[in-house]
Design the sequence.
């Protein structure tokens, strides 16, 4: 088949190379009776293949056409929402496990469209990445999050997620730092969360961005640790300040000995590498107690608080500090 022919290795003398191709097919007359209609259907199928990853094959169907139509509608609605400043930021607390006090907040995107209703970030963030306007979305969200952080105690940090597209853009560092300067947020109060997949999309560019941002005082967290195929290699090749243990391990820590031992090993390794550790997805007291016993410094999850808007975040902080007025407020977000 054509895909196999194209993927066969080519000898270029000093090395072999392989090509990959995505395919979209439209079958006459189901997908159209005129040439232009068939071509449009084939392009729709091809776009669907590219969304699924490299080397995919898609045959046009009405279901695929409806899916692509919905994606286009979502794209237009999201573009309008960005223009109208309608995408909001909510904040989930990241706490110090030994006493439950907040040390920072992760900013999370939230969007409720008048026609579409609530749209999950899992649905609209990939659309922004695929259609090439993730930078505009991220810039808007970072501005809003940084403005909200100005109202928090100065020792609390803001954690913000970077996409793979941003780690491929050499201008990302200047964009982030200029946004912080306009808002007036100290770069030392910002932590950027990146995934292993995002780092490896364009490793050299990502390395430069990470180095430059850390040089400006921004801290870098490796998110969803343990789910990638070579996370240990990333810790060796890149310089991070923090590791976030994926919720897939945390949710099973009290019922699965393997998960407990994996988390124990991650914590010990991070202590040896002088890295902070955050456990994600804590939903029960037993999980929090086990993590605390294992020596994990920080955690986040529904047990400590769901993501809420900036006003509710301020009320949460007032309540927390009222309950613990004698809290020691260090000027650093680092937790031992």
Sequence:
């Amino acid at each position: 088949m054509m895909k196999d022919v194209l993927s066969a290795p080519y000898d270029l003398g000093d090395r072999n190379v392989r090509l990959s191709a995505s395919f979209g097919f439209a079958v006459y007359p189901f997908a159209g009776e005129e040439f232009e209609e068939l071509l449009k259907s084939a392009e729709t199928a091809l776009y669907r293949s590219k969304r699924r990853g490299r080397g995919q094959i898609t045959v046009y169907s009405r279901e695929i056409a409806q899916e692509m139509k919905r994606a286009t509608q979502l794209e237009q609605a999201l573009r309008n929402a960005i223009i109208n400043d309608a995408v909001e930021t909510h904040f989930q607390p990241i706490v110090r496990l030994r006493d439950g006090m907040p040390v920072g907040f992760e900013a999370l995107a939230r969007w409720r469209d008048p026609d579409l209703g609530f749209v999950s970030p899992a649905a609209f963030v990939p659309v922004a990445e695929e259609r090439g306007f993730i930078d505009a979305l991220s810039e808007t969200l970072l501005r809003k999050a940084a403005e909200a952080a100005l109202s928090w105690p100065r020792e609390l940090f803001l954690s913000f997620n970077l996409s793979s597209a941003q780690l491929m853009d050499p201008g990302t560092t200047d964009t982030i730092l200029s946004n912080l300067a306009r808002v007036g947020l100290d770069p030392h109060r910002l932590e950027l969360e990146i995934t292993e997949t995002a780092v490896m999309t364009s490793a050299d560019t990502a390395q430069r961005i990470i180095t430059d941002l850390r040089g400006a005082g921004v801290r870098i967290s490796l998110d969803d640790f343990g789910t990638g195929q070579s996370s240990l290699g990333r810790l060796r090749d890149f310089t991070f300040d923090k590791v976030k243990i994926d919720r897939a391990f945390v949710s099973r820590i009290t019922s699965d000995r393997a998960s407990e031992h994996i988390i124990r090993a991650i914590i010990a390794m991070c202590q040896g590498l002088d890295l902070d550790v955050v456990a994600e997805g804590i939903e029960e007291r037993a999980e929090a107690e086990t993590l605390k016993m294992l020596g994990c410094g920080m955690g986040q999850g529904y047990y400590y608080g769901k993501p809420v808007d900036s006003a509710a975040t301020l009320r949460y902080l007032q309540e927390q500090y009222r309950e613990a007025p004698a809290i020691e407020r260090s000027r650093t977000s680092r937790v031992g």
About this structure: The chain has two domains: 2-60, 88-323. The first helix runs from residue 2 to 7. The mean pLDDT is 87.
